[in-house]
Amino acid sequence: MGTLRVLFLLSFISSPLVLCSTGKHFHQDSALRLEQQDVLLNREANLEAKRSKREAAALWLGEDYDSSMVFLAADEPDNAPAEGGDASELPTCLLCVCLTGSVYCEEVVPEMTAVPTLPKETAYLYARYNKIKKITNKDFADIVTLKRIDLTGNLISEIEEGAFSKLTLLEELNLAENQLVKLPMLPGKLTTFNANHNRLKTKGVKANAFKKLEKLINLFLGDNALEAVPVIPESVRIVHLQNNNITDISFETFCKGNNTYYIRPNLMEVRLDGNPVLLSKYPNSFTCLKSLPVGQYR
């Protein structure tokens, strides 16, 4: 199988023109220099080594894995890429693994420093462990089918306001292990949001950042620099705030201070361990919960 795929790639490189899914042509003679051919061959070897991992991911998503789809071309500008080793010079699905509706761009070689151009039908994007630095308003503007975005382990320090505003179907957003100091407005249908291991402070998280997310179930904000607990929607079941700088809480943090009969049945797990706050000082702040938060009591 590996030999056949390499032969396929070599025939792809040697042809004078490559037809993209958009019907656009790339002029191979001027666009792909010898060093870029080496990049493609190295990338092919890397993808072959990860094939079993992709198959497992596809099965987890309930999709059929088809190795012939690895090299489907995504929408790209109709101009010849310049010389060099930047990932942006090559069609996305030559650098990534493209399944039906899913794009996998993990540890891309050469370095991926920006969100790649995606096929318009993309529903799941996995671009983990690259060197993406910024998310702009244009990155996802035309990909309204996205349901899951995973950008774990990049260098993202800025997300433009409105970058996710058109993603009305987005349910899961993973921004863990980046360098964020503030959050933009988040899509209203999110069920899981993960921003563990960033540099978030309370001033970088708007007061209503999560308040209006009525479908949110999992909220992960551990290992940041938050000084206070943000407003947590009623729908949330799990909230992780471990290893922050939270120093105190109030009657309104989890419960409704003026209602001693109020019960919050959905909130099953709260982690506050690794914070300066001494939870035993606030015994009446947890009366609405089924179980006490994990944290320092003495």
UniProtKB/TrEMBL annotation:
| Gene that this polypeptide is encoded by | ogna
Query: Can you tell me which family this protein belongs to?
Result: Belongs to the small leucine-rich proteoglycan (SLRP) family. SLRP class III subfamily.
Subcellular localization, per the record?
Secreted, Extracellular space, Extracellular matrix
Write down the species.
Oncorhynchus mykiss (Rainbow trout)
* Main function: Induces bone formation in conjunction with TGF-beta-1 or TGF-beta-2.
| Pfam families, sorted | LRR_8
Q: Does the keyword Repeat apply?
A: yes
**UniProt name for this protein:** Mimecan
What the entry lists under SUPFAM superfamilies is as follows: L domain-like
Entry GO CC: extracellular matrix; extracellular space
